[in-house]
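S.,

Sequence below, as promised.
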Amino acid sequence: MIVIGGNHSSNTRKLYEICMQECEYTYFIQTLDDLQLRKLPESVRLVGITAGASTPNNIIEEVQNYVRINF
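The prediction came back faster than expected:
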């Protein structure tokens, strides 16, 4: 699971905590530059993406497009 948002966003931190309870491989990123899909084990077949309420749409779309192409 990929959670996108600012480090200081309480909304995004809460999303991250909830996702971590359900998914061992949860990553908190601020931008695409923080994403490292190569760390995922080969057994992972599905990637979910969520974002904090104030995360700009262009950052979310950039991450979505990257994951679609590279995963």
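The longest strand covers residues 2-4.

Coffee later?
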